[in-house]
Amino acid sequence: MLIIGIAGGSGSGKSTVVKQVIKHLPKDAVTVIPQDAYYKDNGHKSAEERAKINFDHPTSIEWGLLIKQLEILKTGASIEMPIYSYVTCARSKETITVNPAQVIIIEGILILTNPRLRKKMDIKVFVDADGDDRLMRIIRRDLEERGRSFQQVLDHYTDFVKPMHLQFIEPTKRYADIIVPQGGQNKVAIDLLSSRIKTHINLDVNDGKKTKSPHKRK
Fold this sequence. Notes:
By secondary structure, the protein is an alpha/beta fold. It has one domain (about 20-105, about 110-200): P-loop containing nucleotide triphosphate hydrolases (Rossmann fold, 3-Layer(aba) Sandwich), CATH 3.40.50.300. The chain is built from seven helices and seven strands; from the N terminus they run βαβααβββαβααβα. It has helices spanning about 15-25, 45-50, 65-75, 115-120, 130-145, 150-170, 185-210; strands at about 1-10, 30-35, 80-85, 90-100, 105, 125-130, 180. Helix 1 (about 15-25) packs across helix 7 and helix 5 packs across helix 6 (about 150-170). The chain is globular and about 55 Å long. Residues about 210-218 have low confidence and may be disordered.
């Protein structure tokens, strides 16, 4: 099993990179674990308290659960991944059944901030993008998907996203094995990463064939 971490700032194009990589690979060869599914459950808090939640700080993630479920996938067993809503800031009672695969991609802004999680990654990727480009994507996403007003998006970016990016996310670039500038538009970087993954998959398949080969007759 190959474990790949894909990090980068909010709005950098991480999800696009993941989608483009998956397109290059065999069907069912990849399982994606989004960091966002592991935000701590804050559904019990008031609306005012939820508005102050800092989703860009490493303490907002339940790392223990994420790492535990990753270890379960490595054993070949399935997991029940949480479902998190940014609108309610709560976890759903339902979960998503996630099956193991040859390649596990962990994607999220903070995944390279956790040393225990980093140690489990075979390839660490940082998706880089210009701050203005990221802000435009954040505005579009938060207006359409998270129910925020334009002013709320700007306030949230100023109070949380930008300072946390500078303090926690940007510094993790030094841990990356591969840096992908221009996000999902960087076809060369995506092709190189996809080729590396394909090589691993083919090696796994060939090793499996050798292991399962019949014994020679005496």
